[in-house]
Amino acid sequence: MKYLRYSLLRIGLLSLLWGVFLSCGETLGPSEKVGELPVEMTTEAPQRDALEVFQEPQQGEEASTESPSSSEESQEKPSVSDEPPAVFDASESPNEAQEPEPESIAELTPELPVESPPEPSQPTTLALAGGVTLSPAPQPGKSVTITYQGSLASRSNLTLHYGFNGWNALQGQAQTKQDDGTSNSDFYQQAPMTPLPVSQGSGYEVTITVPTQAKALHMVFFTKSSQAQEWDNNQGQDFNIGVQFPYIGPYLTWNATTKPDSGVVVSFVSGPSCVGQVEYGVSSSLGQVVQGTASKRYHQIVLASLQGNTTYYYKVRCKGGRSSAVYSFKTALSSPSVVRFAALSDMQDNGETGRWSATSTELFANHKDLDFLIISGDLPWNDRPGLWWTFFDKGRALFATKVIMPVPGNHDTPTVNSNTNTTSFETFFSLPTASGSSTYYSFRFGPAMFLGMNSEYASDFAKPNGKQYQWMSATLSSLPTPKPTWVFAYAHHPSYNVGNRHWGGQGTYRDITEFFDGKVDWVFYGHEHMYQRMKPIRYNGALVQSYGNGVTQGVGYVVLPPAGAWPNPNVIDEASSKAYYRNRLAYPIPATGRSDVSSQNGFVRVELQGRTFSLKAYGMGTPQSPQNARVVDQLSYTKP
User: Fold this and answer.
1) Less crowded by CB within 10 Å, the N or C end of the chain?
2) Cα 45–chain centre separation
3) What is the dihedral of CA 356, 359, 364, 365, to 10 degrees?
């Protein structure tokens, strides 16, 4: 009887479950078949504190659009009781009752696989500041509708004036060329806009096709009247958005809160404002997220508490919106015995004839062992949105993998001449601020210390009260413990220079160099567009026999070759009252009776091994005669 009772119970249980299964199969929708997850399973993510580190969102977390005006909707995630019932094998014999009876039906419910969260779909509408929206997000080869409801919305007519990729020329695209006032050409198209339906309010719209080679879209708007044209150029910043996400970046720096062996700042410009995120991890599957504090265009997100000597993978995104490709970087050892860095200057690429793309490609492809880059100013051709885009885009792969530590030059400010307005520079870069400014600072990398200077404030270099003069004096008088084996400085305007373009201004920047003797090993400048390596000299150009920071040794001064802009081959004439500076050159050596030297695009690479210093200067030809990178000058020595 005991075995018969167990058998009858088992048969009854199986019959009941089979009936439930059949009834569910008749009523479930086409996307809800047994064993499949519903298509939409999302739930609103909990509110998180600023810069909170949290795990990769699992399936069901929110997926909002990038538009600040979009609402964030959510659906409830099905509970366990919504899972399909277990299915039994009907061929099982009811007489095999020797097996123990299950404690509950729930134990027989199979586990559903855990799936990675899907990438959010492209937002249907992107809202830029100033009443400009795009629908859908621009994509290469696709059409996009641009709607304008800004300050000119009530005018009787409106025209869209637009370009792509930093207002640069696109091959095969019918564009009009115009000078932007700084000897740089902008390439644009125009399209008349159509008034919006009355029900949508004042404004205009137009649909254009995005070229297949487009990475970024730039727009301004104008209305015609009998008197003149009236423009809306977004207060000089134009309206811009990335066709490739993000619009600018990502790129890496260090600031006051990050150290090379444990942290990095990841920056990017999203286009439309959004809450920025960096997803990262020690494998390409990522797994951790750091989130920004507010909706914005310029994002600077700190990754902290990283492991030293470790490769990290990362991507940037707008929360719930568009996402970048996956990149990687490597943190430093806590006490590296070898340090490798490149020194660059004067990228200054107008997108037409410059060689910055070739230089950055060479560094990215053939100098992967570099730890970081220092940049001595003149990053864009001039301080305009499209020209900043060109600088960042042509260095995109390099900057996403190597930390860059720049200082400003005269082309990084609103005028071609020196200007103390460094707003754009300070907006783009998160850098150390211990000096009270992010435009001049110091940082440490293992046995080496670096002092970045801002030569746009020329009066800062003057003694006795110049801010950077006093800062440099205090910094070099109290070097950190343990004291660095090597000390380097860099700025844009040279304190020692033989080139004929800017040699007359070198004295303006010299006072500060009196602190370099016996403390600084090498100083890197730009501005002249001519590679120069000086012989060992002390303050005011006094020649000595050897490089070093001993009491009888001299500092090494280098004027960097232009990394993208045109090279200058002309040096001061032998008849000049300053001609004695020609004798300070270790490279190049001007020929007697000549006032020109070989000058080309390139960069400088430095390697430190213990107390041994090695420098190699690479030349890459000129825009008119490009060449593959090759060593044109090199030097190596060991400190006693």
Assistant:
1) N
2) 28
3) 130
Neighbours of 445 (CB within 10 A): 23
| Length, in residues, of the chain | 640
Q: Which helix or strand (DSSP H or E) is residue 523 part of? A: strand 522-525
Bridge-based pairing of strands 626-638 and 176-179 is: unpaired
- Residues 451, 561 share a domain: yes
pLDDT band at 450; cut points 50, 70, 90: very high
Q: Which of 540, 525, 204 is nearest to 344 (CA)?
A: 525
Q: Rounded CA gap, 277 and 289, in Å?
A: 7
| Residue 120 lies inside a defined structural domain of this protein | no
The C-alpha angle with vertex 9 and arms to 7 and 11, in degrees rounded to 5, equals: 70
Host domain of residue 32: 1-37+83-115
pLDDT band at 224 (very low <50, low <70, confident <90, very high): very high
The 8-class DSSP code of residue 62 comes to -
- Tell which of 307, 333, 359 closes a domain: 333
Q: Are residues 230 and 255 in the same domain?
A: no
At residue 106, the 3 state secondary structure works out as helix
* Percentage above 90 pLDDT, the chain: 71
Task: Verify that 360 and 304 share a domain, yes or no.
Answer: no
In 367-477, beta strands by DSSP E: 372-375, 403-406, 441-445, 448-452
Q: How many distinct helices (H) and strands (E) make up the chain?
A: 6, 32
| Residue that terminates a domain, selected from 286, 307, 333 | 333
Residues 198, 191: contact at Cβ < 8 Å? no
Helix or strand or coil: residue 153? coil
Q: Which of 158-162, 313-317, 354-358, 580-584 has the lowest mean pLDDT?
A: 580-584
| Residue pair 610/375 in contact by the 8 Å Cβ criterion | no
Q: Residue with structure tokens 């090498």?
A: 522
Q: Does 278 reside within a domain?
A: yes
Its pTM surpasses 0.85:
no
Structure tokens at 153: 């919305």
Whether residue 77 is contained in a domain is answered as no
Residue 78 domain flag: no
Q: What is the mean pLDDT of the chain?
A: 84
What domain count does the chain have?
Answer: 4
CA 264 from chain centre, in angstroms, equals 12
**pLDDT tens figures, 536-554:** 999 989 999 999 988 889 9
402 and 549 share a domain?
A: yes
For residue 504, give the DSSP letter: G
Average pLDDT over residues 16-26: 40
**CA distances (Å), 118 to each of 67, 78, 115, 215, 323, in order?**
19, 18, 9, 24, 12
Give the rounded distance of the alpha carbon of 636 from its chain centre.
33
Same domain flag for 447 and 530: yes
Q: Which two tokens stand for residue 125?
A: 């509408």
Over residues 390-400, the mean pLDDT reads 98
Q: Residue 74 pLDDT more than 90?
A: no
DSSP summary character for residue 585? E
